[in-house]
Each structure stands twice: as structure tokens, then as C-alpha cells.
User: Which sequence fits this backbone?
């Protein structure tokens, strides 16, 4: 995929993207060099870069840290057209600043959480949030992918809100990541909004999502299993698709026996031969020795590998 | 109350504090001049300044905006010893930066939310969050008041976590605002931690909190009813305390018929004769015309006033 020309609206994104795990230094500062290396590896696996997602510990990073990391990725020459950074913050001023930064750097899109501190807010209030950000950013290149993850954010994005945003911001609000965990919701999005790029929130529903006309998936486990997930994305019409889906579901289920973010980082640390990756920022904690042994046992039992990651 | 000497550890705070509502300009930028005026009025009502609380729309403000507002309050000569700004953010780097800023300005304390994006986190992870912030700020003047508000933040502060923090950071972790809405929890804090400054999360339990040895209250409605709440705080042993408690409960119940933050701002706008105060940031929305009429009707029926606010 080519880099986006600065004057061109980015193409609608598709395929498999990873909410890239974020490496930290011993003092818990962000580690740009390691993130660049990881992103470069993910791109070799046909995996796009949904940096600053939930599994990136994005909400444990400041806006300034996110801007610096994005500068580092772009400065390293990675393909901006494959970047969909998370830019939705609790504060509308933060969301404007971070989204503007991403668009100016030429990112293919942004993945936007709703503001998530205040609970029980109205669709009208959420509409105003997204509308204000889009208008303040004021850049025709902006492509917004909404981020619906009520189990974590508690504040969700309803079908009615999507309908209103699509009507008022056609070509700008172009897709969604649905991490509701409810297939009926994903299905409704696929059916109700033709042309809307619906990304499955994890790969366990990738085949169904593709069969329903979806755009792909953005999944935690794409951090460690990107090639297999991309293969199913690319070959979902093939005879072996059901078996491929079952196999990756089994791997995800094994990882999910442990706290997801520390487990992903443990896998990257182990298979990349780089223990620094084990670090997480509070309020998360790394795996215990017992959990670590358990996870690595599960992975070995499946002959799991991350080719090309080490060295 | 005198200003805090820069080299002295601030006194443990007590009394009534308001999570001061935050005024916005027409472009939704923060309005420092109006905030200074409001805070000055609150101080005349014996009300401390818990700026950047939930009812301040604090989590709709960026860290930079909060720092600028705090600079404006201190620059205007308001009593820093009466300031307890909210400084707990999702990102540990933000919490460190904002807390450091508040301490350097001489604030009497800070009110610290736990990081609230990731759900189901462990006490160990939350402990590490607070410990890291305290150690990174590294200033003997720091006084931390924890902020327990599970109905909104979803992430709470357990009794066990308080116990551990008190043991490891005596004189630094000194109090809490309990907005759990569960009296049994407030009561347990009062009983288990002698000397710990327990603030009721709203004035409906102020009398009980004072009877139990509490420090006072930090309440949304202190934005509009500070003098009465302070009078009960100061005179809770008096014969009329039960009646005073009942009267302020009735006022709060009337306001709570409407969305709290827009209702508080509507009251300030109306009684301060300054419609600019009606503005809220998304995802909140201002009261509808019908809600506004309803609120003002409830207040008039109670001969409500905010003496000295207008002009």
C-alpha cells in the first residue's frame, strides 16, 4: 500500500489491524524505538496499525506522549495509510488536538472513542462531541472510525447515533470498530449501513463479519497472531475458512485465560526475546510467574510462533 | 485561613468544599475570568475550592486547560490553602504532571481519582498508580485526598487499598471523598481509620458524617447552597441540626430532578444574572427550556437565593 498523498482523502481502510501494545522503559516512560520496531514487524505480517487502542494502554498515555509516538512512527517512514490511531479522549480539547495531529501526519484514519467518564449521557451529547471534533479539526482528509466498546468505556455508540453522523458527515464518518461482543449489534450495523466499514472487535467473528460485508477486524490478538488472522481475512471465501476460524479462536481462548494486555506483552517479550516488553503501566500489572508459565505452556502446546519478531 | 507557606506542609483540610462548576466561552474554551469570580464568591460563603471535580466537568478538560485555570486562580490571589483540585487522570503521566503543578502552586491538597478507563483492575494496580504518582511528584508538601466515586468512575478505592496507602504514605495520603452513596462504606472509613479526613460525597449525609468524626463534605450542591451547608458543618452539634439537614436535603432533591451539572450551571446563570454559565461541554447538554423552567420553579418555591453572586 502506498503512502497517502497529503492532499488526498485516504482510502477507506480494510483488513486486519492491531491495537499495538505500547512498550515502556524502566521508568514507565514510553519507548518509541521499540514501538517502531514492533509496528514494522506488524506491517510485514499484513497487519495495520491501530495504535492507541484499548490494548495499547492508550488511556494510560498522555496526549503529548501519543503525539510523540506518532511522530516517531511517521519519522521512521512507516506507511501512514496503514495507521488508524485512537484519538478519542474524555476531553473534547484533547480529542481535537490529537485528531488534528494524526490527520496532519497523513494517517489513513482515526479510531474515536466517545468521551467515557460521564455515564448515562445522551446521543445528543455524543453527537455534539463528534461533530465538534470534526468541525474543529476542519480537514477534508479526516476519516473517522467510531469505536464502540461498552464493556470497557461503558459509554456506547448507538445505531441511531451512527445514522445521524453518517447523514451529517458523509465521507468523514466512514466506519466503526464494534467491540460490543454482541453479534446482533455487528449484524445490524452491517445491514443498516451499506458502505460503512464495519470492523469486528475481535477475530472470533471475522468470518461472519466478512460474510456480512464487513471491512475486517481490529483485534487484541492481532498483536501476536497477525498472519493467520490476515490469511482468513484474505481467503474467507475458501473451503478452509471455517477450520482457520476455529484454529484462531482456540488460540485466542488460550490467551484469554490470562489478563489480555499483560499476556500479549508477555508473548511479545518471549517470542521477541526482549523482556522489556513485559512492562505495563498502572493500573495494570504484569503476569505473575505462574501466569507467565501457564501462558507460555498454552502457546507451546499449540506450536505457536511469531516468525521474524526476534532479532 | 492563611495562605500556606511554600515550605510548610499544608494543614489537613476540613469543612465544605465545592466541586466548582467550570465556565465555558462560546467556542467551548475555558473561561478563567468567570471561574475566578465564582471561586471568589464561594470563598465568601466559607466554601473551599475542589476545582476539577466530577461536577466541574474536569474530565472534559485537558491537563493543560486545568493547569492554566489553576494558574489563574492562584494569580488572582485566591487562598491556595482552600484549594483541593482534582488531579487524578487515566494516564499516570498526566496525574504526575497535574499533581506536581498543584503542589508547586501551594494547593492545600489534591483530590485524586483512580485511573478509570480500564475496568476490573486490581488493588495492586491501583496501589502502584498512587504510589508512582506520589513518588514521582516527590514533594513533602503533597496531601492526597482519594476520590471514591464508583457510580461514575466504575473503578473504586477499597478499604484494603486505603489501609495499605495509609501505612506506606502516612502524612501524604490523608483523606478521602466518599461518593459511593453507601453509608456503610463511609461509616467503615470513619471507624477503621482514625485521623483520616473523610469527606461525605454529598451533604445529605453531612450530619451523620460529622457525628462519626468526619471532616466535612464535598458536594455538587455546594456550588449553589454553600452557606447553608457550611452552617450545618459548623453547628452540627446544635439543636437545629436535624432540621437544617432536612431542609438542605429537600433543596438537593429538587435540583436532582434535573441533570445535575447543567442544573447547577443554570442556577448560577440565573442567580448570577450571567447566561454564559449555561454552557456545558459535550457529552453533556444544557437543560431544555422546559427543564429550565422546572428547575427555576422548584428553586423559587423554596425562596432560594445566592446572596452576593450577581453584580
Assistant:
Amino acid at each position: 500500500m502506498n503512502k497517502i498523498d497529503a492532499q488526498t482523502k485516504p482510502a477507506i481502510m480494510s483488513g486486519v489491524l492491531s491495537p499495538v501494545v505500547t512498550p515502556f522503559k524502566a521508568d514507565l516512560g514510553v519507548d518509541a524505538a521499540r514501538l517502531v520496531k514492533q509496528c514494522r514487524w506488524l506491517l510485514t505480517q499484513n497487519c495495520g496499525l491501530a495504535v492507541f487502542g484499548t490494548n495499547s494502554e492508550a488511556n494510560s498515555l498522555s496526549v503529548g506522549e501519543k503525539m510523540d509516538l506518532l511522530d516517531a512512527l511517521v519519522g521512521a517512514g512507516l506507511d501512514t495509510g496503514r495507521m488508524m490511531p485512537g484519538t478519542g479522549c474524555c476531553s473534547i480539547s484533547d480529542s481535537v488536538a490529537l485528531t488534528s495531529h494524526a490527520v496532519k501526519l497523513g494517517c489513513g484514519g482515526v479510531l474515536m472513542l466517545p468521551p467515557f467518564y460521564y455515564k448515562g449521557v445522551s446521543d445528543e451529547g455524543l453527537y455534539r462531541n463528534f461533530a465538534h471534533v470534526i468541525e474543529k479539526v476542519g480537514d477534508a482528509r479526516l476519516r473517522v472510525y467510531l469505536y464502540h466498546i461498552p464493556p470497557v468505556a461503558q459509554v456506547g455508540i448507538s445505531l441511531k447515533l451512527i445514522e445521524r453522523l453518517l447523514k451529517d458527515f458523509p465521507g468523514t464518518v466512514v466506519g466503526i470498530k464494534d467491540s460490543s461482543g454482541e453479534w446482533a449489534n455487528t449484524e445490524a450495523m452491517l445491514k443498516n449501513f451499506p458502505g460503512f466499514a464495519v470492523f469486528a472487535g475481535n477475530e472470533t467473528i471475522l468470518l461472519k463479519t466478512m460474510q456480512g460485508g464487513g471491512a475486517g477486524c481490529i483485534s487484541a490478538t492481532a498483536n501476536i497472531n497477525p498472519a493467520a488472522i490476515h490469511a482468513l481475512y484474505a481467503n474467507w471465501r475458501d473451503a478452509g475458512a471455517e477450520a482457520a476460524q476455529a484454529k484462531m479462536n482456540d488460540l485466542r481462548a488460550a490467551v484469554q485465560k490470562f489478563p489480555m494486555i499483560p499476556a500479549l506483552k508477555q508473548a511479545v517479550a518471549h517470542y521477541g526475546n526482549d523482556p522489556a516488553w513485559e512492562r505495563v503501566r498502572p493500573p495494570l500489572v504484569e503476569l505473575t510467574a505462574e501466569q507467565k508459565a501457564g501462558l507460555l505452556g498454552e502457546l507451546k502446546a499449540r506450536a505457536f510462533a511469531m516468525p521474524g519478531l526476534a532479532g
